[in-house]
Write a structure and sequence with these properties.
Length: about 80
């Protein structure tokens, strides 16, 4: 449980670096369609999350993670040995 909190805290810090705040309904906004983020910046965000959390996300699963909430859920569902 404690590991989830530290992962969430690091993830929130990375999102804040990109100007994405996760409170309220904005956590459900699509990165490209609603937030108007360039795909290059979305890829940078994902890279930074992987680096900070020391995980590898699978491309197939990333296709379904178009919102901050979905991306965080994907990060939390990873096995602990990843």
């Amino acid at each position: 449980m404690r590991q989830h909190f530290s992962k969430i805290k690091k993830a929130v810090e990375v999102f804040h670096m990109y100007g994405i705040y996760l409170h309220g309904p904005r956590k459900n906004d699509h990165f490209i369609q609603k937030m108007n983020m360039d795909p290059v910046f979305v890829n940078g965000l994902i890279f930074e999350l992987e680096y900070q959390l020391q995980v590898n996300l699978q491309e197939e699963k990333l296709k379904n993670a178009g919102t901050p909430k979905a991306l965080i859920n994907l990060l939390l569902d990873l096995p602990h040995d990843n």
